[in-house]
Structure formats: structure tokens, C-alpha cells
């Protein structure tokens, strides 16, 4: 049987790139828009319930950053991560510190990438044994790319802070990334395609005249359908990738000299409100007191008896009292003294997302 690549073509008037990206990564029409809408509802409800546990304030999905258009498909990044988690894949933010040429040189059936640039999702997979493809629903077809060019592209994307890159790999030992299985899907919609190398070449040849090089665009965006201008994306899970472009507040990404740059860095994001976020990289041996001191630079907590940094998964709360005491509460267990605890002691890993609640 001839080896094929699964790819979906996006209607330029829609915003279903997240859906197309997921299905291209999974190499089949396995995710539906209805599923993503349901995931978005559940995530918004979970955060809303956490925020209301000790208060009566009502938080809507929109205020939490989970607004979506069921026809447009404008989904929060956490929706994609959850859809992949349900299929036994985990996503990690990919940084310049993670870049290794060997990742791109060697045969790779255990990891791939999902990327966001200019508010547009696409994925990168090694398919057909040893061929890298950029699977972008706004392109004429799948784009084969050599490992050196791919390494340079992802490096540039990360260096210029024009997007976000996630490394996706199976969460079950020995599991491999899925390959195209066209015999399982005898009936496809017009935008869903299983393509041979000849089919891919024909699609790209047909679309070549519409996708000319433009000096001010990367090779991924030659169609003249460029998205809004580049922004500095947040770099942790749970943050809407387009929020920073709409928030003219002082809660932007900290200056680089505030960030710890070691390979063991813990990247922390705090959602201050529905749209305002702050992010910073910490030394994992930094104290929880240092974490709270950083947060306090960005909020006015005058008058509150305490404030809390909440997480949904894992179920964790970091509480700072007006007296200066710090408590760590996990899975509804008894509070632990966190005054002298480090981020490592508290179990924080490479990327963590918190919600701020002031009481």
C-alpha cells in the first residue's frame, strides 16, 4: 500500500486552524470542532469553580480567557493541549535551550511539533519514514523541508518571539506517533485529504503562482493571507496566544535580565485577570517568597488579608497572608509551611500556570 500524508485545507475565511493542526498531527480526521467546544467549556468551568470556592464572585468563560466561536474555532492553547492529552500525548513548551540538531537529523517517530505564528496553528511531523513535513492548512499542500532548514526556521521563530512551539510526544512508553491510515476513513469531506508524494507535488505546483515569496514574510506565509502583525507571545501553557496583543498594561513579559536562563529554568505564568498575564523564568531553587514578591510588583493587594495562586492540574494553592506567612496546599490536603520552601520543594516543574485570586 502506498504511503500517504494526511492534511486538511482551511477555508481562509474560517479560524479552524487549531482543528486542522490537530488532525494533521494525528494523521487523520480524529478531532471534531464539537469536541474542542466541549473541552473549552470544561476548562472554563473548572477554573471558574476554583475561583469561586471561597467567594461569590461570578466568573464567565469569556473573562477567564476561554471565549471561543464555535464556527470560528478561535481556541485557547490549553484546548489543544487537552485534546492531545486525551489521546495520550503530552505537550512541552519548546525553547532555544531545547534546540538540538540531532532531534531533526535522526529518524523521529516519537515526537513532533505544533506551532503558532501570527495567531495561526500548524504542525510539523516526520512522515513517510524519514521526511519532515510542515502541515499548514493555509498552504497549497504539505511542505517537505530538510532538517537543516527546519532547524533554522524553528530557531528563528523562537529567537524573534513571533510564535510558540510545543514538542509533542506520547505519554505511554513505547508508543509512537500515528501514521496515516486511509483505509479507516473511506468517506472524507472535500477539505480532508490523504496524499501521496505525487499528489503533494501537484497541489504545490498548482498553488505556486498564488504563493510567491514576499520579503516581509517567512516562507510559511507567502499566500498574501498574512495574519495580524507579530506580537510577543506568552510562553507557558494556559495562556491565550493572542492576549498580549490586546493588553496595554504593565503586565507584559519581563525584561530578559529578570529571567533565569539556565536549562533547568521554571517558567511561571500568572493570569491576573481574563486578559492580563505575567510570565517569568525562575531558578528552581528560588524561594516561594521570591515568586510572591514578583507577583506583588504587578498587583495592588492593599487591604486583602491574603491572596492565592491557584492551579487546576495539579490541584495546588500557594497562599500568601498579609502577615508574610506562606502556605502550600495540595489536593485539598493540610496546609504546609512554605516560608522557606523553594519552587523545587513545592513541586513546580519547567512550565507552570497559575490563576491569581485576591481575598
Automatic annotation (TrEMBL):
Its main location: nucleus. It is found in: Nucleus. One of its GO terms (cellular component) is nucleus. SUPFAM superfamilies: Ubiquitin-like. It holds the Pfam family Josephin. Residues 261-356 form the UBX domain. Residues 2-183 form the Josephin domain. Keywords: Hydrolase, Nucleus, Protease, Thiol protease, Transcription, Transcription regulation, Ubl conjugation pathway. GO terms for molecular function: cysteine-type deubiquitinase activity. It is an enzyme of class 3 (hydrolase). The active site is at 17, 120, 136. Its EC number is 3.4.19.12. GO terms for biological process: protein deubiquitination; proteolysis. It catalyses: Thiol-dependent hydrolysis of ester, thioester, amide, peptide and isopeptide bonds formed by the C-terminal Gly of ubiquitin (a 76-residue protein attached to proteins as an intracellular targeting signal). PANTHER family: ATAXIN-3-RELATED (PTHR14159:SF0). This is ubiquitinyl hydrolase 1.
Amino acid at each position: 500500500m502506498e504511503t500517504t500524508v494526511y492534511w486538511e485545507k482551511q477555508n481562509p475565511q474560517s479560524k479552524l486552524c487549531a482543528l486542522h493542526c490537530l488532525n494533521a498531527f494525528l494523521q487523520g480526521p480524529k478531532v471534531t470542532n464539537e469536541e474542542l467546544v466541549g473541552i473549552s467549556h470544561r476548562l472554563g468551568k473548572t477554573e471558574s469553580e476554583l475561583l469561586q470556592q471561597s467567594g461569590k464572585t461570578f466568573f464567565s468563560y469569556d473573562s477567564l480567557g476561554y471565549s471561543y466561536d464555535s464556527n470560528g474555532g478561535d481556541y485557547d492553547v490549553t484546548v489543544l493541549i487537552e485534546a492531545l492529552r486525551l489521546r495520550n500525548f503530552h505537550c512541552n513548551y519548546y525553547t532555544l535551550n531545547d534546540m538540538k540538531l540531532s532531534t531533526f537529523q535522526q529518524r523521529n517517530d516519537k515526537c513532533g511539533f505544533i506551532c503558532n505564528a501570527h495567531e495561526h496553528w500548524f504542525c510539523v511531523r516526520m512522515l513517510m519514514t524519514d521526511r519532515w513535513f510542515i502541515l499548514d492548512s493555509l498552504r497549497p499542500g504539505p511542505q517537505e523541508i530538510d532538517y537543516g532548514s527546519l532547524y533554522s526556521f524553528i530557531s528563528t521563530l523562537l529567537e524573534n518571539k513571533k510564535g510558540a512551539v510545543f514538542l509533542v510526544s506520547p505519554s505511554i512508553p513505547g508508543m509512537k506517533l500515528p501514521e496515516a491510515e486511509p483505509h479507516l476513513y473511506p468517506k472524507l469531506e472535500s477539505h480532508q485529504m490523504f496524499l501521496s508524494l505525487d499528489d503533494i507535488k501537484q497541489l504545490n505546483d498548482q498553488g505556486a503562482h498564488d504563493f510567491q515569496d514576499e520579503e516581509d514574510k517567512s516562507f510559511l506565509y507567502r499566500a498574501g493571507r498574512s495574519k495580524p502583525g507579530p506580537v510577543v507571545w506568552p510562553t507557558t501553557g494556559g495562556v491565550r496566544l493572542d492576549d498580549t496583543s490586546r493588553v496595554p498594561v504593565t503586565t507584559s513579559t519581563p525584561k530578559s535580565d529578570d529571567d533565569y536562563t539556565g536549562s533547568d529554568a521554571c517558567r511561571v505564568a500568572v493570569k491576573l485577570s481574563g486578559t492580563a498575564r505575567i510570565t517569568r523564568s525562575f531558578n528552581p531553587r528560588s524561594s516561594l517568597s521570591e515568586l510572591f514578591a514578583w507577583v506583588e510588583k504587578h498587583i495592588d493587594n492593599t487591604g486583602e488579608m491574603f491572596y492565592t495562586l491557584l492551579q487546576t492540574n495539579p490541584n495546588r494553592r500557594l497562599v500568601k497572608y498579609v502577615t508574610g506567612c506562606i502556605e502550600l496546599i495540595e489536593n485539598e490536603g493540610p496546609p504546609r509551611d512554605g516560608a522557606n520552601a523553594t519552587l523545587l520543594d513545592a513541586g513546580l516543574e519547567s512550565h507552570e500556570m497559575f490563576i491569581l485570586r485576591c481575598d
